[in-house]
Write a structure and sequence with these properties.
alpha+beta; eight-stranded parallel β-barrel; six-stranded antiparallel beta sheet; 33 strands; globular; binds calcium ion
């Protein structure tokens, strides 16, 4: 008999997959658990496997090996770790991490399979020195120790022994870390908080659909010399209030305020891997979707990454400044994978528990990074919920964006939503609800196809993204704005907030606030670069018109609009789609473009102003959209026209008429007869009346957005 696989499936059962069953003889089999042999109480044989029941429970702190005819096979604990039995026995709701007090510090870490956990105390963040070692005590998988004295200024790691292997790990709950995140730091959190930090309230939005999201990278927004910022590429750089480009135009925070958005969404600000960006010399660029310490801020954005307090203080200083300037702050979190398969805290502290595997024991890889976090595991879910609450409370954040949310499970996402709701302030929660190929049953995946199970959680809407300007998977593909025919139905569905609007226009969502509407983000080509790829034959002015039209659709659609920073002056990455590790010259925002594309900037500013002034575009629920939004049928091809009528969503305007003409030439169309105030045309976007038309038909220019009201 040849043993293919032996899996421990609960505390006293082992399932063995074998070849050539007929020869099986139980007397040739020994179950070794450490140095003890476990008697087999029962066994049953099915088609290609044998199920063994041991008399005594298996001790999970020791390796388990089968000897058949003297040939050893190591039993895998993976299935046991995933079992309900295991989780029922070991789950703990205790607060984990390091708890500093002036006279003592307590440490708590969870690792049921560990046979020994030692706290190692160091005096610096990365020096070679013999640490002070303190053995921790175990209570049903929870290891803890309290160390007397004032430990402020020390650094710590855990040395964990599991199945005869020893690993040194950073506490996954570390709130503060030293240089490059290699050791957790013991600090007094009170010293990380700028004066009045918690007293400056974030601006409050009533509904999530009132938000206008703006995606910013700390490094890119002020990295260029053209930003006129002193602390370029740092947290403090975006906190500089009155900065200007060489043309004398507002940059950085000054610019964001001028533009009028409501929420700044910060790309990774948690500590990402030193292998992506070395905090000692941060010349190498990386976006930072490489989690290392999920509860501590990234060091390369601080002015002194060696000082664990500094990065926290400076990030808080930024958040405080953004709040003071009327801006909410959303952080981009990556809970779906970690940077390194084996060199990560979760795996070192409890190998196998926090990741998904297929039936053969291979890591699930929906993320493309070789490791999908098993968010459905109760202690992984606890980590995610704890982490979200920690950031939101400690850093006074206004929401979270979940990277590759489709890899996580609906139950954990709903727990996150509930936890945020319990804080009783409007906290945004949305993510990339893509369909992902991960080892999780379809009904549990937190993707947009299961969005009905995820009320109050938003999804990036790829229908509007690709429908408006062409697929991100084909450079040349065009969309509604750039000359592709037959996109009207897709765009109309998106205009409704992708709800179940009618038989003809049926989206996936139960409310518009589940639809995060966008055409470009940090991934893929910028909108401007996409137009260079899809429409090389079009002239400069037409491309600008298409560009303006694209985000006019986004900003006039029901749902939550999202803008990629710099799009308002036609940001370029020189045609580099996946610029995650391209140099600063590619990724940094070039502020000279603001003057160059000032007409586009003004138009975007006008679009934002329209949306902010007019609640008709911001229905919080599907019923309102269905009752007040009507499409005008029988319009020319590549034209979409709709009305929002009856003081929609308590708007100050009675009737609003929107016309998008994606044709290059003028079109004429019939509209409801009325005396219409024209506030927006191809050149000017806003709420002031440009001219008045009393008519039942109108001619609009090619590649234009037009807004009328009465
Ligand atoms: Ca780092």
């Amino acid at each position: 008999m040849f043993i293919l696989q032996a899996n421990i499936i609960n505390f006293n059962s082992i399932k063995i997959k074998v070849i050539s069953l007929p020869n099986f003889a139980i007397e040739k089999l020994t179950v070794l658990n450490g140095t003890n042999s476990l008697a087999v109480k029962n066994y049953s044989i099915t088609e290609d496997s044998i199920l063994l029941e041991t008399e005594r429970n298996i001790n999970i702190k020791n390796p388990c090996t089968l000897l058949y005819d003297g040939n050893p096979s190591i039993c895998s604990y993976l299935q046991l770790y995933k079992s309900q039995e295991f989780n029922n026995k070991y789950f703990t709701n205790e607060a984990l991490g390091c708890f500093y007090y002036k006279n003592y510090t307590t440490f708590k870490v969870w690792s049921p399979p560990a046979s020994l956990v030692t706290l190692l105390l160091y005096s610096t963040g990365d020096s070679l020195e013999a640490p002070r070692a303190i053995e921790m005590n175990e209570n049903n998988g929870l290891w803890n120790v309290s160390v007397q004295g004032d430990l402020k200024g020390f650094y710590y790691t855990y040395e964990v022994v599991i199945l005869n292997e020893k690993h040194e790990a950073v506490d996954p709950y570390a709130k503060a870390v030293g240089i490059n995140g290699l050791r957790a730091a013991i600090i007094n959190m009170d010293e990380t908080t700028p004066a009045d930090f918690y007293n400056i309230p974030a601006p409050k939005i009533k509904n999530y659909t009132d938000a206008i999201l703006y995606e910013v990278s700390i490094r890119d927004i002020t990295g260029s010399k053209t930003s006129g910022v002193k602390n370029r590429g740092k947290y403090l750089g975006l906190a500089e209030e009155n900065t200007f480009s060489p043309d004398g135009l507002p940059t950085g925070l000054n610019h964001i305020k001028e533009l009028g958005i409501t929420h700044v969404q910060l790309m990774p600000i948690f500590d990402f891997s030193y292998m992506s960006v070395d905090e000692k010399n941060s010349e190498k660029y990386n976006w930072g979707y490489d989690p290392q310490n999920l509860n501590a801020p990234e060091g390369s954005y601080s002015t002194n990454p060696y000082n664990p307090t500094c990065r926290i203080y400076e990030l808080k200083e930024l958040i405080k400044t953004l709040h003071k300037n009327g801006l909410c702050v959303v952080m981009d979190m990556v809970y779906n994978h970690v940077y390194h398969n084996t060199e990560n805290s979760f795996e070192k502290i409890f190998p196998g528990y926090y990741f998904r595997y297929d039936n053969s024991g291979k890591r699930s890889d929906g993320s493309g990074c070789g490791n999908d976090i098993a968010s459905e595991q109760p202690m992984a879910a606890k980590f995610i919920v704890d982490s979200v609450l920690y950031w939101v409370n400690e850093y006074n954040l206004d929401g979270l964006r979940f990277d590759l949310m489709g890899l996580l499970d609906v139950n954990t996402m709903n727990k996150v939503r509930e936890a945020l709701n319990s804080l009783r302030r409007p906290l945004m929660l949305y993510g990339e609800g893509w369909y992902m190929n991960t080892e999780l049953s379809e009904d549990l995946k937190a993707n947009m196809f299961n969005s009905y199970k995820l009320p109050s959680i938003g999804h990036f809407n790829d229908s509007i993204r690709d429908g408006v300007k062409g697929s991100v998977f084909s450079k040349e593909d065009k969309g509604f704005i750039s000359g592709k025919q037959g996109q009207e139905e897709t765009i109309k569905k998106c205009i409704t907030g992708f709800i179940n609007y009618s038989e003809k226009y049926k989206g996936l969502f139960i409310t518009p606030s589940q639809s995060v509407n966008y055409v470009s983000a940090h991934d893929n080509n910028t909108l401007w670069d996409k137009l260079q790829c899809s429409n090389p034959q079009d002239n400069f002015e037409d491309k600008k018109s298409m560009h303006k039209l694209a985000n006019a659709v986004v900003l006039m659609s029901q749902g939550i609009p999202f803008l990629h920073s710099g799009v308002e002056f036609c940001r370029t990455k020189n045609g580099i789609e996946n610029s995650y590790n391209s140099p600063d010259e590619i990724n940094n925002i070039n502020w000279l473009r603001k003057a160059e594309f000032y007409d586009v900037f003004n138009y975007y500013k006008g679009l934002i102003n329209i949306r902010k002034q007019h609640a008709a575009f911001r229905f919080p629920n599907a019923e309102g959209v269905k009752a007040h939004l009507s499409f005008i049928e029988n319009v020319p091809n590549n034209v979409i026209a709709f009305t929002l009528s009856g003081y929609a969503n308590n708007d100050s305007w009675d009737n609003i008429l929107v016309i998008f003409n994606a044709n290059r030439s003028n079109v004429k169309l019939n509209i409801p007869f009325a005396k219409w105030n024209v506030t927006t045309d191809k050149y000017i976007a806003g709420t002031e009346t440009l001219r008045i038309l009393e008519t039942d038909s109108v001619e609009v220019e090619g590649l234009s957005f037009n807004l009328f009201h009465n």
